[in-house]
Write a structure and sequence with these properties.
Layout (H helix, E strand, L loop, with lengths): L37 H10 L5 H26 L12 E4 L21 H39 L9 H8 L6 E6 L4 H17 L5 E9 L5 H11 L1 H12 L3 E6 L1 H4 L4 E5 L5 E5 L4 H21 L4 E7 H4 L16 E8 L10 H6 L10 E3 L3 H7 L3 E5 L13
Length: 404
Amino acid sequence: MKKMIRPAYLLTVKTVLLLLACCAFSGNLLAQPLAKGALPAARKALTAGQISSSQITRILTQRVQRTRVDVTRLLPKHKEVLFDEELPASRILRWPSKNLGFTLYPNVAFWDKLSAEDKRSYFLAANNRAIQRLMRERTQAMEQLKSLLPRMWNEKITFDNQPAEKQLVASIPAQAKYILLGEEHNQQPVQVFVSRVLREYRAAYPDRKIILLTEFLPAGIKKKNSFLQDMKEFAPAYAQVFSTALGSGMQVHGLEPRCMYYDDGQAEVPQANQTKETFDLAILPEAIRLRNKFWLEQIKYFRQQNPDAVFIIYAGAEHLSYSAPFSVGAQLPQQETFSAHVFKAVNKLDKECDFVDLLGDEAYPFYTVKTLSWEDAKLRRAAGFDMRFSVSKKDYSLSKKRKK
């Protein structure tokens, strides 16, 4: 299997925030028929406790095996669009703690009736189904993007030399109610840029109600000031983002499920070269699907409470990309959404930020463009963003208080 070069926003970085960055779908584990008519009966019996634990284990084990075979059948056609952690996992090495306030499958009635091992099997089979969808959708998105590269290169907008944060705020439509800031994790210039964008947007719209919703805080956190005080010690650039938002009169709420934010679940994933790699559970396709689904539920809840507010959604770029499988950005109202991606400036040896760079390569060197955008909405959706910024440490360094 050809190893695909990983764009920057898909790097498997374990952040100092205990965040497990970066994308996925599964349907119900038992969504494919075991035999005609057997599935509804099996679900009903499981929920009612009328099926033995050994039968449950056998059904789930078979489901893992069958879905893994389904992925294997698709691999020859789609293998070049998968990253290492997106191959079928063989086993769960560590499971998120059940004491953190959220479960992975809150809407599955029989979830709590499953044993610990059966829950692992449920997830593994669901992850295999997520991989199937991911392969199909990413292949389609990359084929479309590749066909549009000549137009994208020729029709890219030329921007003036004003600061990037001013370029962004000036480009956001006044009617936008969802502003997506998709970042490359753990790069201080990126977080400094985001801080300046928040300040610039508040200055442009001093009377608007603005709510910052973010992957980088756990959902339901109440004592934000003490939490941010601690964050200043181990993640000062992220702390600056949230301090800027609060200081600008914005509400700040976390999106991440606590069982993902605080706990390092892990899985073993066999590779094409016969080795076995260990990955954080949170970056497997099914985990990304579940995380994005949870975020959307949180966004819907806050929208019901704040119908007229502007939501700034700050997370990893792949979670928000219009063209990514399971994307949050693709599921928000298109006419009310504006998405910007931001990465640390790259060099010639490390020039891939995303799939635009990966497919463009040297024929269409988008990596040389500091601010990238197009007038045509079709090109923006195919790229996955409305604007993309490459920011340098020279221009966006974290300020430090001088010692007296």
